Amino acid sequence: MKTPSSSGVTLVEVMVTLAILGILAAMVAPSFADILNRRRVQMVAAELSSDLAFARAEAGLGGKRNDVIVSFGLPATMSCYTIRYFGASGGCDCSRPPGSACTGQTAELRTVQIPSSNGIRLSLAGQFDPFEPNSIAFQHPRMTNSVAGFAVTVIGPRGAQLQVQVNTMGRVSTCAPSGSTMSGVTPCASS
């Protein structure tokens, strides 16, 4: 007589498989988290670069346009900035909801808010507009900025950093500051 054979897996086999999968997941998780952190920094830096180029282009438009100002705010809960036309009265606070950040005759073009909860923050460096703290103005109609040496560093967890710079002609570039773990990006020139 033949004994019946079972065609399944034993509890021991399932436990061994789960243990191996757990070990592999523990090895891969930190690498995956680093990739996500670097990607977030890249996305924020790309958006900031694009917005600064947009502000410069808006300053070059003819008609009744004024200087275009990008104002940064660094409240505890977020990093933020507002792109706006210079207004004779009123001002902007980028911590207010987009679309309602500016008051008076100041026209808001765009407000971007980066919550601190996602692990990304902005750090301001260099020179800023003398009349607008933590701001850079692109002057109409020349499209040049109001200061030289303007830079914003996008900082993420575990050393992921990119710096967005604007030169005297108003051109925007991105580089990796000293100590950054971002690969494949041109290192920033030493000052």
Q: Could you characterize what this model shows?
A:
This protein has 191 residues and is of the alpha+beta class. It has a domain at 12-64 and 118-175. The chain is built from one helix and nine strands; from the N terminus they run H-E-E-E-E-E-E-E-E-E. A five-stranded antiparallel β-sheet has the order 3-2-1-5-6, covered by helices on one side. A four-stranded antiparallel β-sheet has the order 4-7-8-9, with helices on one face. The radius of gyration is 24 Å and the shape is elongated.
Order of helix and strand elements from N to C terminus = HEEEEEEEEE
Rg (C-alpha, Å): 24 Å
Low-pLDDT segments:
none
Structural class: alpha+beta
Number of strands: 9
Major sheet attributes: 5 strands, antiparallel
Tally of DSSP helical segments: 1
Can you tell me the overall shape? elongated
Taking strands numbered 1, 2, ... along the chain, how are they ordered across the largest sheet? 3-2-1-5-6
Highlighted features:
single chain; elongated; 26% helix; alpha+beta; 191 residues; four-stranded antiparallel sheet
Compile the SSE list and pairings:
Elements: H1 11-60, E1 68-73, E2 78-85, E3 108-115, E4 121-126, E5 135-139, E6 144-145, E7 150-155, E8 161-166, E9 172-175
Antiparallel strand pairs: 1-2, 1-5, 2-3, 4-7, 5-6, 7-8, 8-9
